[in-house]
């Protein structure tokens, strides 16, 4: 089995062991020992919260670079809807699409266009009662990883449709093969990503065997080049550019939370963003609440993809710009006709081919009876810890430290309060010992009196 790829990593040199990140991680996946953070790979969902939390920029996302384009004869950029919101210089989407061509891509395919298709397909699934309600969006890979680990019983309710990134890659390659006559292998599709979870998703797809995406490039990596090109394009305003932009405002709306629900447009929808909010909501759903909701749009980043950690601009700036662009895009007619979309649905062309499987982690022991014993130990140790959840021990809270102690990777004295108690007891014992006088030096009359 190949090793699971994670995009989120630690830059060891930059980490100062400040413990800021351990509290923000929704999966309790980070520990700090000997002044450096480590990520527990099996727990990490690549949500990027630790990238935001680290004041020392020691948490990074590994993405592909533009060098990967050299491996293909025909290269297609797949910009996410949120990408367009990163440029204050941008007057329209067309300008950004042409800038992408200028930095080395041969073609572009807007993910917003694929998102419109995905929205339609999910709408049809719900309409035809083909999936148990409530239906969960399949778009955010960090949320799906979270569900695999913590809420596996809800996985069967995830919409059986590929993500907009995946659909965009497939549509773009089909178009390119017709246009160029090249083979599938000669054509590379590259997602321009606001988030590390998409990098991980491309390498370890969840609901399809193989991803059609050949590389994921972080927004921050090409940002400056795109700005230069936008300015160059704007200075030659009068040139007649080929029209590349096809998505409507509806597709572009996927860049911000609630955008997907607007596309799905079926029954009662609830859109929630921010991984900690998503966890609270999933817990409510597991308790049997919110039964009247038909569709849940859940996104790990606050505000949706405009809040992605690889973006350049603050979520609120991005949101305002995206709104402007949505307004501008809204006027054009949908690129695909209803007939074409119905045909895609009937042919199950973009349907998931693999079930999303639960992921088991954090066994205290493979043997059930041993695991129960260890759990009792965890409970006992946790009850004796101070319960301050301060994180100074390097574990995110007292219960996590208790687990780490039972797993043999931490000590009770990692807790500063426990350490102080131990030092105090030791000091008292030493003082008691110091008060004892050897019989040869003692007061013999006192000893006789005592008798
Ligand atoms: S926030 Fe985490 S990764 Fe960043 S310096 Fe502190 S301990 Fe290291
Ligand atoms: S990416 Fe998310 S899950 Fe992974 S270590 Fe960072 S905060 Fe935790």
Highest CATH level, the class of the largest domain: Alpha Beta
The helix count comes to 17
- The general outline is elongated
End-to-end separation in angstroms reads 77 Å
Approximate helicity band: 40-55%
Element-level helix/strand string: EHEEHEEHEHEHHEHEHHHEHEHHHHHH
The number of domains:
3
Q: Which cofactor or ligand species appear?
A: iron/sulfur cluster
Strand content: 5-15%
Biggest sheet features: 4 strands, parallel
Rounded radius of gyration (Å): 28 Å
What do the pLDDT scores average to? 92
Q: Please mark out the parts with pLDDT under 50 across 5 or more consecutive residues, or reply none.
A: none
The CATH architecture of the largest domain would be 3-Layer(aba) Sandwich
What do we call the CATH topology of the largest domain? Answer: Rossmann fold
Which strand order do you get reading across the main beta sheet? 6-5-8-9
Q: Would you report the number of β strands? A: 11
Helix/strand structural class: alpha/beta
